[in-house]
Fold these 2 entries.
Entry 1:
Amino acid sequence: MKYVITQTARNDDGTDPFPPNRTEILVGLKDYKLWSDTIPKKELVRRIQADLERNIPGASFNAGQPIIDQVMEIVTGSAADLAISIVGDDLEMMRRKADSIAVIVKGTAGAASVNIEQEGTQAQLAININRENAARFGINVSDIQNMIEAAIGGRAVGTIYHGTKRYDMVVRYLPENRNSIDVIKTLQVPSATGGLIPLEQLADIRFVDGQTNIYRIDGKRMVTVRTNVHNRDQGSFVKELQEKIGREIHVPKGYSIIYGGQYENLERAGKQLLITIPLTIVIVFVFLFMLFKNMRHTFVTMSCMLMAMAGGIVALFIRGYHFNVSAGVGFVSIFGISVMAGVLLVSALNRELYKSPLTVRASVQKVAVDQLKAIMMMLIVAIIGLMPAALSTGIGSDVQRPLATVIIGGLTATLLFVPVVIPSLYYWLERKGHKPAGEA
């Protein structure tokens, strides 16, 4: 490791609303070629997490990447793969529901690092001013509040100037005069007659259990159960979880359960892909028809998409990847590249067929052989160029690998099947309706 940096509680600018018991540990790894043990990064993370949990009992640990964690916390409010949030007003009831949901999530295949983001209650000092007693001694409530603020929290009473800089002058009791509830009860408050009245005669002072931090969304309180998803696609995981939670968890009217985290981005991107992919297919169809002005030739060329899609799916399955946004973009990309191979082949078939005196079968065979080198050059160069991205393990590789894998799989299937399938389809459609050039 190059370095280890820790950050406890919220950062200096206050953009991370974290409680004081949360610590972020940033670990900088050396270059992979310098590793003494050639293990995958996932295995290293698993070992580190297991060692921390074994040596620091009572603490829970989650692993992630700094940049994506920051982005997801800003965009969705949680860095987890899936965040299940209960939104409402009653924190105690919401906490009970969250505990039940956490049990369901832990029992679902694929769940990892399940926990509730918000901490539970902890003892807090509550000072409730007795207004009747304060009035009896002729003391204003604001005077009591100001004394409590100054004694315990500190109060600015002036300003000190040092050149162009300005500093507040803050007064505060010494620690030994404010570090226990018994000492706080004896704090003296001046009355209207000049006498000093102990604070315990003017207020009810006691410890109560209160929330350590309260998260909100759209003006309502929120309690969140977070989990990461391993060895399973997020779509099926969330679908199964929604069915279980809908069946076992019931929230009162005015409360709701929402699903966020990285799954929220996947769902949003999935809806966009449902529009983008059909639109891409329609646009390709229109341009192909404008090119060939023949419905049969258009459909023959578009059949390349099916081969490329099948190759991309098989490639994801072989590498053990699940469908995500990166893979979806890869599928859109291979549609265009595979159609290029089809256009190259069908255009050559059209040119040869309508000028050659050979039969349809002979013309198709001749073109299939002649165009094989051009198709191989176009596709093999693209496949070789994407191999580093498909095998990369550096920064950003988690996004690159699914994209490159889909494209390589689609292009490989196109390379293997297009030179064989397209000529066969073309011959099957044209074998009866075409006569060689020169025949009446």
Entry 2:
Amino acid sequence: MKNKAPIIINTISNFLLWRKNISGSIGFVPTMGGIHKGHLSLVKKSVSYCDFTVVSIFLNPLQFAKNEDLNTYPSNTNDDLKLLSNYNISVVFLPSKQEFFSTNFSMKIVEGHLSKCLEGQKRPDFFPGVLTIITKLFNIISPSHAFFGKKDPQQLLIIKKLCEDFNYNIKIVACPTVREKNGLAMSSRNEYLTKDEKADASVIFESIQEAQLLIKSGVFSIFKIKSEMEALLLSCPNLKIDYISFSSCSTLIEYKKTLKKNSLVSIAVFLGHTRLIDSFFYPDI
């Protein structure tokens, strides 16, 4: 059976008109474009779960600092729409910047603790920017389910907290990280990597696997696990470690000596000029 082409909606008013006439479960997949197999795995999950699926494409300027890659972010709307047309998506919501922001827009959603750790320390503009746009999108789309990848675990945890604190009746569905053949976690920013850098990036997932093997064998010493991960990562001369973190899933407070259950193990590295992240939950969520 041929997939029906999604409706493309560019304005909030037209989306609300469509939404008004819909009943049943609505799955939502927010994206910034640069659609890849990771995004498509979220789309497939939504289509299988829900009566309707809405995908948004909005390159959110609020989550980029001045020295970051807003102007070069790898996104091509025509390519994205072609990829999305292969799935039974109901709507692609494609608002312009002018549609989404009034000329005197001045509000931001700021989370007070979880967003101050890990990525929040390195990218202080990121989570307020994400939460502000996600809040707007949740208000407009009114989904019953929203699908987020474990590829961005801190974002996943913070958005769950957003729904809890703001009483959104939205089920947040956590979806597995999708990887390249060499284990590199799929990301739009992988487009920045050279062929050699992409090959070298396999060491990132190797370090994740080594940590998982150590834990499975009963090693919970953070010093031991971290040392083994560092040794693998630094075997790649072009790689620089930003951080290796062992933290509580509920608070993101760092564990100092011993890994405990309900933990997030996460790493950030620079490979050439590109910053890459990877992680896993222990045990998996």
